[in-house]
Design goal:
71 residues; mainly alpha; 86% helix
Length: 71
């Protein structure tokens, strides 16, 4: 884990660690036959939605910064 953080940008490491729970839930359901309750599924949706929202805002912010630097 420490090697990853030294070589990768902080935002990428944050995204990768944030996706850990949804991937674990999916793997547990598919590989171990664990039951995914509506509450668990809702939590996964919230996490994935938050990751998508952060990426969208980050992309827009970077584009705005690039546009203001070009002027």
């Amino acid at each position: 884990s420490e090697k990853i953080t030294r070589r990768r940008p902080g935002r990428l490491v944050a995204i990768l660690t944030s996706t850990e729970l949804p991937v674990a839930v999916l793997a547990g359901a598919l590989l171990l036959g664990e039951k995914v309750t509506p509450l668990i599924a809702g939590g996964v949706v919230v996490i994935v939605g938050a990751i998508a929202l952060v990426q969208l805002v980050d992309r827009r912010t970077r584009k705005a910064d690039q546009a203001s630097c070009a002027v």
